[in-house]
Amino acid sequence: VERARSHYQMASDIYPLLFYAHLEYGDHLTRIGRPLAALDVLDLAVQRFPEHPDPWFFRGKAALQAQKYASAQDNLQKVLAMNPGEEDATLLLVQAQIELQAFASARQSAGMIAAPDTPDLEWQELYSDIDFAEGSATGDSALVQKSQTTLFALIQNNPQDIGNWQKLIGRYQLVGDYD
Description:
By secondary structure, the chain is an all-alpha fold. The protein is 77% helix and 0% strand.
């Protein structure tokens, strides 16, 4: 980490407006589990390049990992204001909104990319996540069951997807269904 920091710092010192050095270093810190340090680096990128969506995107990604969900939402909404329909930013925005229990906003954001009945498996999974989180938070067992049904259908479509198996088993354990 220290070696990478010195390389990015050197690049920034040589040419302070070196846009991608800040982004890459911030993203590197996020990927290695240091999102708070990433936010400090990305703050500088946002200050220097406020009109470009990339610093806001990486800052939103780091804020999400740091569990600063309101900040993640704000940063990702800025990305989408500059670049409407940007799918990766929308995915992260929906995740932040789920964590904030802003379920209507999460559905609205997801709907900018894909309808709830989309054939796209990634978006089906995301809608399932919204359903499960909302159902769990509000005690709506029908939404929880809907999320389980969707996830089970995704597993039937791709039985090798270990992540969805883990998610489905975890959800059943959370709702106390061990059968």
